[in-house]
Write a sequence for this structure.
């Protein structure tokens, strides 16, 4: 009898398992598990390709930034024209195109405030080739912190997106701009002029550097190469003042930062243009020229903006 009961119990278990497989697993989409497990293809928030996006507007904490792609490169158009950080801008486009809708929370919500969407912290809109456009509003995190409440224009639904995308989309103007003070390739430089407390000119000859002023001598290769590295890698850490578009900082603003009579001015020149930067840190003027033509160089100086720069000092 005991053996018969065991056999009947096993038959019942197998029947139940077979019923589950037939009624549940057989009805799942091919190749996928559910939201919990999940190789199922998720719904994309936007049907757009990253390389087709040509304009992005990001508003984070009430601060809007407009980026546009010009000749394949991203530029900031608002709040003030500037070169964009290409990696950050491309990341925005890539994440917009690849954004997954995790789950729909409510089809027709009547109270968006409970999701943080009545006054969203972050909004991202885009325009793409062919007239495609879209906008997403991002609200609060869910209780678990793994997802964010979101809604998009033209869609009544409130849905969830992965919380890790917040760091990609929550960008202010300074976060998205190119922070290099001098957009220059160090290997293109073949002349250095350093004036101020020190008056020195250095010229490249092949792989060597020679002192041309105040006397003729062989240059210290390591010291010169170190200066070139610092010049090419100098970057802004904070924007403390911004001149109006097409204008200049007022004299009293420049004086506030010691830039009315700067003790250090860095300028660079090639055969077609001259650019520079100003600092109140040291009594030195540095200029250099390129050995071959290059793309236009960014400008960050007293006539455009006042910045805090991460630029190690160097004494010739």
């Amino acid at each position: 009898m005991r053996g018969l009961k065991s056999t009947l119990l096993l038959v019942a278990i197998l029947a139940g398992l077979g019923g589950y497989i037939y009624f549940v697993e057989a009805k799942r989409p091919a190749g996928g598990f559910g939201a919990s497990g999940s190789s199922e293809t998720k719904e994309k928030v936007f049907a757009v390709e990253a390389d087709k996006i040509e304009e992005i507007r990001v508003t984070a904490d009430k601060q809007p930034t407009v980026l546009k792609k010009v000749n394949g490169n991203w530029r900031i158009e608002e709040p003030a024209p500037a070169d964009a950080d290409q990696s950050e801008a491309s990341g925005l486009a890539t994440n917009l195109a690849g954004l997954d809708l995790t789950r729909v929370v409510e089809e027709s919500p009547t109270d968006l405030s409970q999701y943080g969407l009545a006054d969203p912290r972050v909004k991202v809109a885009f325009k793409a080739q062919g007239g495609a456009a879209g906008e997403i509003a991002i609200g609060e995190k869910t209780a678990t912190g793994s997802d964010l409440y979101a809604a998009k224009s033209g869609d009544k639904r409130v849905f969830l997106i992965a919380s890790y995308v917040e760091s990609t989309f929550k960008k202010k103007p300074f976060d998205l701009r190119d922070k290099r003070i001098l957009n220059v390739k160090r290997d293109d430089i073949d002349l250095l002029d350093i004036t101020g407390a020190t008056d020195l000119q250095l010229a490249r000859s092949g792989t060597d550097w020679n002192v041309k002023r105040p006397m003729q001598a062989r240059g210290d290769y390591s010291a010169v190469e170190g200066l070139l590295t610092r010049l090419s890698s100098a970057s802004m850490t904070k924007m403390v003042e911004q001149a109006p578009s097409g204008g200049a900082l007022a004299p009293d603003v420049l004086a506030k930062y010691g830039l009315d009579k700067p003790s250090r001015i860095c300028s660079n020149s090639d055969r077609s243009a001259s650019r520079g930067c100003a600092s109140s840190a040291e009594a030195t003027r540095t200029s250099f020229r390129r050995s071959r033509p290059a793309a236009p160089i960014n400008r960050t100086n007293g006539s455009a903006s006042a910045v805090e720069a991460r630029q190690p000092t160097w004494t010739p």
